[in-house]
């Protein structure tokens, strides 16, 4: 066995198979790789194929010490265009029933690879906390495991107390880049004035009715502000949606609709002045780090909690009513972009951006916390 295989720590990372979860864990994987770890990143076969489709078949080649592996998801293949969001309820059920065996087989394969001196022995597993089968697999293979929550700390603690709140009657009970990026948006953004554009993206899982889509559409049009709107496959219930020629004519000189985009780059473009978002934690932190105030339309999971902090605690955003109406959308967009409240929110989000930059720089608390995790958890046996 070579010296590299003997000494290099090897982390196996397992995200929940949804875009936001993959993005968050992939960033952690990159940070660990920079700190000298050999990385095995485990996607489902479905998402791996989507990644290759969007990025090209050679997109995952050439990463020394950073390998991608796949396991099946146990679901029936989707008919027609596979570039859509999988049904989350079916996916969660399959995770519980079908993921343990193929993941155990993958760990066994990695063990054989280490014996042959091809890769370092697996030293730890980093798993999304929504992939509970990894705990049993770690126990069976005598490996330490770290559970990763892609939500905010507040959202995580709220989730821990859901059962208590439900039992006390304090929460009412209620009845889901993997897409090819459309880079033409940057040419369009270059033609816009600084801080003039509203960026609209409801994430990778949020769905809405055709009626809700129309209310947002005409709210954006009636605001008279330039906008970049991401309408991904699967966003609208019932399939694709075609806008009327009246709407297209109305927005032709100030609106661009695309299927997907590199969000962090868009948010950091100087023409972006506001973000209409579903309040997923990735989108929330990316908006803060770009210094962009938000309009919030939360959907589920940690999004309502994130929205409350954005609007009420940090005062860097405003919430749109669940029963969305075009008049409210247009009014809030104008307040966000040119109103006095919007100016105050922009000032506050710039203050948070500065804090985020300080915390993630060498010596900052986030930087130090990651170093502490690496040394005390991952490298404890070295």
TrEMBL record:
Keywords for this entry? Glycosyltransferase, Transferase
Indicate the transmembrane segments per the record.
none
| One Pfam family of this chain | Glyco_transf_N
GO MF, one annotated term = quercetin 3-O-glucosyltransferase activity
Among InterPro entries, the record links this protein to:
Glyco_transf_N, UDP_glucos_trans, UDP_glycos_trans_CS
Domain Glycosyltransferase N-terminal: where?
12-58
Family the UniProt entry places it in: Belongs to the UDP-glycosyltransferase family.
Name of protein:
Glycosyltransferase N-terminal domain-containing protein
Organism annotation? Trifolium subterraneum (Subterranean clover)
């Amino acid at each position: 066995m070579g010296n590299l295989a003997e000494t290099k720590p090897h982390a196996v990372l397992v995200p929940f198979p949804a875009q936001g979860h993959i993005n968050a864990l992939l960033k952690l994987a990159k940070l660990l790789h920079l700190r000298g770890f050999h990385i095995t990143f485990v996607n489902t076969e479905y998402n791996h194929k989507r990644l290759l489709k969007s990025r090209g078949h050679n997109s995952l080649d050439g990463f020394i010490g950073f390998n991608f592996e796949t396991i099946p998801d146990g679901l029936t293949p989707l008919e027609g265009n596979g570039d859509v969001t999988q049904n989350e309820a079916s996916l969660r059920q399959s995770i519980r029933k079908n993921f343990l065996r193929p993941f155990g087989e993958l760990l066994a394969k990695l063990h054989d690879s280490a014996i042959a001196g091809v890769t370092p022995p697996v030293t730890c597993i980093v798993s999304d906390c929504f992939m509970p089968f990894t705990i049993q697999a770690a126990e069976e293979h005598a490996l330490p495991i770290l559970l990763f929550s892609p939500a905010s700390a507040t959202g995580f603690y709220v989730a821990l107390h859901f059962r208590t709140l439900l039992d006390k009657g304090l929460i009412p009970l209620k009845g889901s880049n993997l897409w090819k990026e459309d880079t033409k948006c940057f040419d369009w953004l270059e033609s816009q004035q600084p801080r003039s554009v509203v960026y609209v993206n409801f994430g990778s899982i949020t769905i809405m009715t055709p009626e809700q889509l129309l209310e947002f559409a005409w709210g954006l049009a009636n605001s008279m502000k330039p906008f970049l709107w991401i309408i991904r496959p699967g966003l609208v219930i019932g399939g694709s949606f075609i806008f009327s020629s009246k709407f297209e004519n109305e927005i032709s000189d100030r609106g661009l609709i695309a299927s997907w985009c590199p969000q962090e780059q868009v948010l950091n473009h100087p023409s972006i002045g506001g973000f209409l978002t579903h309040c997923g934690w990735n989108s929330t932190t990316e908006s803060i780090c770009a210094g962009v105030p938000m309009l919030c339309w939360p959907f589920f999971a940690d999004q309502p909690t994130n929205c409350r902090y954005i609007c009420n605690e940090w005062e860097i955003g405003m919430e749109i009513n669940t029963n969305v109406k075009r008049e409210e959308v247009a009014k809030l967009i104008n307040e966000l972009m040119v109103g006095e409240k919007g100016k105050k929110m922009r000032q506050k989000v710039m203050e948070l951006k500065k804090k985020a930059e300080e915390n993630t720089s060498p010596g900052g608390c986030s930087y130090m916390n990651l170093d502490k995790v690496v040394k005390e958890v991952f490298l404890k046996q070295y």
